[in-house]
Amino acid sequence: MENIVKVGMADLKALCHPAVLTTLGLGSCVGIALIDMRTKVIGLAHAMLPDSSQINNKSNNAKFVDTAVDALIIEMERLGAVKSGIVAKIAGGAQMFSFSQASDLMRIGYRNVIAAKDKLRQLGIPLVAEDTGGSYGRTIELDSATGILLVKTIGHGIKRI
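RE: above sequence
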């Protein structure tokens, strides 16, 4: 029986095999899934905002893409993951509402995806798959046995990336 653990909004968790990490209702938020297939340590962050540098209250490092990725890697290394063996998959970053004046400031989903890609690139972590954008929510499950990220949507089916 595998251990299914929920990751809430502005939350992150890392687990050893056998485990499944899941997060519900990714809209403009981005789910960042990290996998070390050699050690089968997995991590998942549900980040709400792209950048912590603009915010004074940084008490929750899982809330921001930039600090969530750093914190997740630390948690995974604590469980035996090796940073050089970690790959990433991301999902979410939808544009949930349409704005007639869609300034970049309002395009949180898009900005979250760009921030995640930038942060992973800075850390040298390969992004091997993504299911991002659109205007619909996603629920994701990361399985330590396979490294597959299951992406469930309403009206857009299920993808395995």
